Amino acid sequence: MKIFNTLSRRKEEFVPLEEGKVKMYVCGPTVYNFIHIGNARPMIVFDTVRRYFEYRGYEVNYVSNFTDVDDKIIKKANEEGVDAETISRRYIAECKKDMEMMNVRPATTHPQATQEIGGMLEMIETLIESGHAYRAEDGTVYFRTSSFPDYGKLSHKNLEDLQSGFREIKVTGEEGKEDPSDFVLWKPKKEGEPYWESPWCEGRPGWHIECSVMSKKYLGDSIDIHAGGEDLIFPHHENEIAQSESANGKPFATYWMHNAFLNIDNKKMSKSLGNFFTVREISEKYDLQVLRFFMLSAHYRSPLNFSAELMEASKNGLERILTAVERLDDSLAAAPDRAENEEEKKCRAQAEEFVKKFEDAMDDDFNTADAIAAVFELARLSNTAVSGESARSLAAYLRETMEKLCNVLGILTERKKETLDSEIEELIAKRQQARKEKNFALADEIRGKLSEMGIVLEDTREGVKWKRV
Ligand code: AMP
Ligand code: ZN
Question: Of 193, 220, 222, whose CA–CA distance to 205 is shortest?
Fold first, then answer.
């Protein structure tokens, strides 16, 4: 398997630190609002990377954080007159719902910054003791970039250029910095902000330190893959490397993977530009399987422009795959149990070739666009060469293969049967009528049907209430 490594700017063969295991960390969202579909791109891409490693037989330990202390969260909390935790708890729950709808599997661990302050204090202490960090007069602790000769190795920037670049920008409140390229590890509290005790001042952590600490705690000092959107290369990931390698004295991550942006009108989709759609908004128009399929239709390192036309094309593409699977199910139900004839053997060999194409594409830096093309070829082959008269073993092989490959892409092969509230209410009304007419058998039958649809009824004094389970 080959992975494009931002560190070397080359595709490299994947060699895990520990045989058969992958330790990966993906920087997660800051939780102050519903996530937008730009944020969904790394979630879908790296969930697919995880799934492919598993397909290849690796055991994957996948960690992805929620940044739950940040200026934007505090601002939102003050606007609503609630505390920061209320905001972050709400949007973590909403984000998890979005992930489920996109079939993004929960991480092995989803740590939260505010739960890991102890580890951050420890790492900052270690950095101060070893001369990699210092406390300014106002209590702010800065990382001393000049103490880490490799600073700039990920973003391919030169420390001297960075220093002279930063020198032009004067930031108020950062007068205590020895050097303009130094960055904050811990900062003093401000009025109305959450804070923690520390040896330096009452305050809160800078953004970068949380990922170094969580990665170390849940995956160890050295990990295989660290990932996120390309805007994180500098300064976030560069700073994470400086912190972790200075504190641990070991290489941090072997491979650095970055997805390109999801754009709209060829501009980055972002909250600050206001040109975004939330995942939740898209879910009102489309099954989020379509969004997932759309995201994977491009290579993760290519910019992807969001448009209604491309979403429609993805919807149709997905439909073609699901229809082929349904046809296979029908064929399988009728297919006779007999040996495969020559034609069928040829069909199987061709299907095996498409599987190889899929794997070659995914082995080549997770080229999901080409992998999807191979799935389409399999679908076409199934449609033309398999029917209810085919040997059952062939129909079964194709059905299983479709399942396996779709599972790597995170595409559910079973169509979701959406039940509308109106349909449920209609059934409930029918049941009420049946009861009125003392037709209890029919009433029970309807209750059973609703229960199969995941609807639970409750007879209350105010009438029948229902909920989905
Ligand atoms: P944030 O909440 O801004 O920290 O972003 C969470 C993740 O989403 C990071 O990995 C970002 O790089 C990524 N991200 C944000 N906007 C986009 C976008 N328009 N396209 C792709 N990835 C994005
Ligand atoms: Zn991070």
Answer: 193
Q: Which among 409, 435, 458 is the end of a domain?
A: 409
Q: Which residues pair with 25 in a beta bridge?
A: 63, 226
As a whole number of angstroms, the distance between CA 162 and CA 351 comes to 53
Same domain, 165 and 248: yes
Range of the domain at 82: 2-259
Q: Is 42 in the pocket of ligand 1 (CB under 6 A)?
A: yes
Q: Is 294 part of a structural domain of the chain?
A: no
**pLDDT band with cut points at 50, 70 and 90 for residue 149:** very high
292 falls within a domain: no
What is the per-residue pLDDT for 464? 84
What is d(CA 262, CA 310) in angstroms, rounded to the nearest whole number?
13
Whether residue 195 lies inside any domain: the answer is: yes
Residue 249 has a pLDDT of 98
Q: Report which of 405, 396, 399 is spatially closest to residue 340, judged by C-alpha positions.
A: 396
User: Is 413 in contact with 402 (CB distance < 8 Å)?
Assistant: yes
For the chain, the domain total comes to: 3
- CB of 264 within 6 A of ligand 1: the answer is no
DSSP string of 29-48, one letter each residue: -B-SSPPBHHHHHHHHHHHH
State in Å: Cα 162 to ligand 2 middle: 21
